[in-house]
Amino acid sequence: MEPTLIQKPAKAEIVKNAKAHVQALLEAKLPAQLVYHSPKHTATVVKEARALGEAAGLSEADQEALVLAAWFHDVGYTEVYDGHEFRSADMAAEWLQRQGYPPERIELVQHLIKATHRDAPRQTELEQLLVDADMSNMGRESFFAEAELLRAEWEAMLGKTYSNTEWAETQLAFLLAGKYYTKAAKERYQEQFKENVKEQRKLVKKTEKKKKKKEEEAEGTFAEPKRGIETMFRTMYSNHMKLSDMADKKANMMISLNAVLMSLIITYFGAKLGSKTAALSNVGLIRNPIIAVPMGILLATALASVITAILCAQPDVTSFKWLKRSPQIATNRRVNLLFFGNFSKLSLDDFQHGMTEIMGQKEALYTNMVTDIYYLGDVLTKKYRLLRLSYTIFMVGLILTALSFGIALLYKV
């Protein structure tokens, strides 16, 4: 009777079984917050480990150990986050023992998994190949997208919060400190790795510029003004110009109206008084002298109203008395070098000196702009005071004229 031969499973079967076991374990027990160290990450590391092993010309047994270690290298995350590599090695050993895997090969797989710890030495080729596979994301185009997943995972699991600038700097430091150990990994990832370093440097500069811009906008000081201050000055200047133009138009209207009214009255009386006969026979003033009262009130009203309107419309140039013993022209709050009424009193040398100070000091520039707005407001105040007086005189005069004319009619009757 021939002895019964125990048929050993195919060499790839242990890897196939490990894949099924690990995928089921990760799907069932891996915390949802682990968006980077996900089943997809494990599958990617296995794929890269297999490719690196083939490129390195590993033996079939070593290739098998490398792939098994790749499958189990992150299973410890199902129970612990920090130091998961050691728990992953224990869990791998427990499962491989149940499969009847040789003890010396189990020990090898454990050493490979522990080598993925950040502080572990990587001495053997197999250890270096697994670490290179685990860090293959540094040399892939997906590095930046996966980095954001890692950022979200750290925030959820470790409570670490990073600004965009801090995270960009952290990732750049990570890339600069990283390296590939094996020749196979360097040939596979080095080119893209260098490109990722360049892109990360650009990203750091970009985030630093944005951070600086936000700080400048938040501070909004005279040294580094934000856009809102400039918009405010533009709006104030525009409003002052519109109000000044409006006042001038209203004043011109009163001047025209009262000038026409005065012309008619003077022309009428001049024509009548020029002819003595006509004056004695036809002028109502001779036959009814009381009519002179409303006509006199109307003439006085027109005269007073037109005078105040002219005063409102006439140019008003503010000025100052500059003392030569005070050389700080640009920073003097009572001096406005932006207005010709002020700087026309200065010599060319003094004006050039003052403008040079303004262009060199932003505080001096804003001081002069504020002073300019103040003087514009002072001129507008005077304009609208006189304009209001002109309209008030005209209104009161018309009322008095109408009342006196009515009294004259009643007296005549």
UniProtKB/TrEMBL annotation:
Bilayer-crossing regions: 251-271, 291-313, 389-411
A molecular function GO annotation: hydrolase activity
Database matches in InterPro entries: HD/PDEase_dom, HD_domain, HD_phosphohydro, PycTM_dom
HD domain span: 41-134
Highest taxon above the source species: Bacteria
Cellular location(s): Cell membrane
UniProt KW Lipid metabolism keyword: no
GO cellular component, one term: plasma membrane
Record keywords, A-Z: Antiviral defense, Cell membrane, Hydrolase, Membrane, Nucleotide-binding, Transmembrane, Transmembrane helix
Pycsar effector protein domain: residues covered: 232-405
GO annotation (BP), single: defense response to virus
Keyword flag Nucleotide-binding: yes
Region (Disordered): 200-222
Official protein name in the record: Putative metal-dependent HD superfamily phosphohydrolase
Organism field: Hymenobacter luteus
